[in-house]
Amino acid sequence: MAKPVAPEAEALSPDHAAKLLGISRALFFRMNSAGKLPLPVYLSSRCPRWRRAELLAWLAAGCPDRLTWTKLRKGEH
After folding, report:
1. What number of helices (H) and strands (E) belong to the chain?
2. pLDDT digits (tens, 9 = 90+) for 21-46
């Protein structure tokens, strides 16, 4: 009997977000600390998650820094 396939998570842990981006967990945290990634959402005070769709859109936009990304998302130029 085949195992059921779980749907892809929409809220990614740091490990899964780093894997999606093809970088190490350590680099992911350095980039986040430096303001080079989109802001996470917090499921609790110690549980940050990144939206899969937002990370993919951020990649497609050329990986802008957090401030530029926030302005792009709001439609500012």
Report:
1. 4, 3
2. 999 999 999 999 999 999 999 999 99
Phi, then psi, of 55 in degrees rounded to 5: -65, -40
Q: SS3 for 10-43, per residue? A: CEECHHHHHHHHCCCHHHHHHHHHCCCCCCCEEC
Domain boundaries, the chain: 11-74
Residue type, 19: K
What is the Cα 34 distance to its own chain's centre?
A: 14
Residue 55 amino acid letter: L
